[in-house]
Amino acid sequence: MDTLINVAHGFGVALQPVNLIYCFIGVFIGTLVGVLPGIGPISAMSLLLPITLSGTPESGIIMMAGIYYGSMYGGSTTSILVNIPGEAASVVTCIDGHQMAKQGRAGPALGISAFGSFIAGTFALVALMLVAPKLASVAIAFGPAEYFSLMVLGLVVLTFLTQGSMPKALLMACIGVVLGVIGLDSITAQPRLTFGRIELIDGIGLVPVVMGLFGVAEVLLNTEQIIKRDIINTKITHLLPSKADWKASAGPMSRGTIMGFLLGILPGGGAVISSFASYALEKRLSKTPERFGNGAIEGVAGPEAANNAAAGGAFIPLMTLGIPPNVVMALLLGAFVIHGLQPGPLMITQNPGLFWGIVASMYIGNLMLLVLNLPMIGMWVQLLKLPYNILFPLIILFTIIGVYCSSNNVFDVYVMIAFGIIGYFMRKLGYEPAPLVLAFVLGPMLENNLRKSLILSQGNLMTFIERPISAACLLLAVVLLVAPLLPSLRQKRELVALDEEA
Amino acid sequence: MSDQSNVNFRLNNSELWGGLIGLALGGFVIWSGLKLKLGTINDPGAGFVLFYTGILICLFAAAIIIAALTEGGPTFGSRWENTRWTKPVIIIACLIAFAFSLNTFGFLLSSIPLMVLLLRLVDPVRWQLTIPIALLVPLGMWWILKRLLLIQLPSGIFEIG
């Protein structure tokens, strides 16, 4: 009953005209960046982070969340019609989605992808609504040792799942921690690594770092290649899937939804991993696995449901523990912090309007996305024809303006340009920026909780082992760190990384 | 990455240099941590986390270096093989020039040439499109920010903008 009252309260917040407008802007931009290859939700969210300052916290976060789950919808359109993933979570959709389009079945592929996304997104929200408050009440008992161990686990999971070399990913995570602690020490107020620059006393801003590493570096990498687009030019019809399509897709959709949601909750997991896992599962379960890769609708329905469910699941650790499980959620945490809010176990009770308003807005956003992605598909197809030689300079200009507006400080523009150049070389040398950004956000929290634990336990390191939740997290982290050394697991990890690269 | 399998020691092995840069960075972080004071285990100081993170950086960098020496790795040249590497170089040069000119000349006088350069030098856009885009987009953004959002962009020594 309490849940229903809370949901009603949430709808009261989400249905306010201003929040509806922000929600629409969010899902629209999300679809837009999902459709356009080369710009992902991270770049778009970092670009729009300063805009959230102009409204209420509810409006800003509703918009940011909309960009994230909206991009999951939009990404599939490009995968199916152009065979280029609009964003990373839609890579798998290219395999069978584009084959379906080539066989004249672009309509059902787009249709099942949109309906699958809608069903999975709605399921994830119901689960979020039911699980989050319960988890938050458990999380109140968490002490600094548990938080520290959970953050260590999150970073290790992300580095484990990052493509390529694990030492490189771990190195990136450590550098992220160092960058995160630049500025005044929270306990002794000593300036650290500021090099005498007054601008660094408050630390390096999240916006210039993310915009540089993801926005500018992405443009630099994209301009290296000639992007060829093989757009399906036939008229898109039969967007509503047939009975046979529904029958074939029901199982993959349900499995993808549950798997995606569970993987989304895990720190370091998320939409990309869940879509790959769902595809692999469906292929294994299929009586005719040879159809996969040749236009099997199950290969579209499962992964699309999985990545949308994961997008919903990822909100749970952020909202209940205050720990972002991936980079997108780290940005969302940035939006909360900008507004002076700290997501965590107390947020649901102290700010019910905010939490339930965001959840309710996601229901509304999912409905908006269904309308945006099916009847308006023609508009998105036209957008795919926008030339990149105009788009990329515009993105660079918008990132510069976005960074400047976030702090009114030219120094942040320099920081962004520097991180853009560093990010480009990092990617070229095989160093992924995702662990760095997550560690950058978690770094100060990680340090604070470690020092608090040591002070409270009077320097007893066993405090991390004696507390069961902390011990379980650390044990899992150690297993993941040791696992790549075992030949069979190493092979499997490399296989996933290769798949992602493909 | 044609010569990835080459195990012979090569100075232009990009993995080796990546590891060495990591090692140098780790060393600097350890030194910074020591300088800030480590404190004790009962009462960790400002340099405590930096020091131990620096040690981890050195360890991971050493692992990368060992892998580069034992397994080989791609050369710098192969990383940029079959790519239009001059394009990112042009953009980087434009961005650095922009960074230097932003405070001196202000947002408008810096961003209009930046747009012209990016539109013309990377994948040339026709002049008929370049001029209006390079003029109207920065002007439009400046107008929105200054008039609607009341955000003052840098105006430079000429106080334009």
Question: What features would you highlight for this structure?
Answer:
heterodimer; A: 502 residues; mainly alpha; two-stranded antiparallel sheet; 23 helices; disordered C terminus; B: 161 residues; 5 helices; 0% strand; flat; disordered N terminus
What topology emerges from the helices and strands here?
The complex is a heterodimer of chains A (502) and B (161).
Chain A lengths: L1 H13 L2 H19 L5 H8 L8 H26 L8 H12 L3 H34 L4 H18 L4 H15 L2 E2 L6 E2 L13 H19 L18 H23 L5 H15 L12 H16 L1 H7 L5 H12 L8 H4 L1 H22 L3 H7 L4 H20 L2 H19 L4 H24 L6 H4 L1 H15 L4 H15 L1
Antiparallel strand pairs in A: 1-2
Chain B lengths: L13 H23 L11 H24 L4 H4 L6 H36 L5 H22 L13
Describe the structure.
The complex is a heterodimer of chains A (502) and B (161). Chain A has 23 helices and two strands. Chain A has one domain (2-501). Chain A has helices at 2-14, 17-35, 41-48, 57-82, 91-102, 106-139, 144-161, 166-180, 206-224, 243-265, 271-285, 298-313, 315-321, 327-338, 347-350, 352-373, 377-383, 388-407, 410-428, 433-456, 463-466, 468-482, 487-501, and strands at residues 183-184, 191-192. Chain A starts with a helix and ends with a helix. With 161 residues, chain B is an all-alpha fold. Chain B has two domains: 14-79; 86-148, no CATH class. Chain B has five helices and no strands. Chain B is flat. Mean pLDDT of chain B is 88; it is low at 1-6. The interface between A and B is large, with 60 and 65 residues.
Task: Report the strand count of chain A.
Answer: 2
Number of H- or I-type helical stretches of chain A: 23
Series of H and E elements of chain B: HHHHH
Oligomer: heterodimer
The neighbouring-strand order within the major sheet of chain A is 1-2
State the shape of chain A.
globular
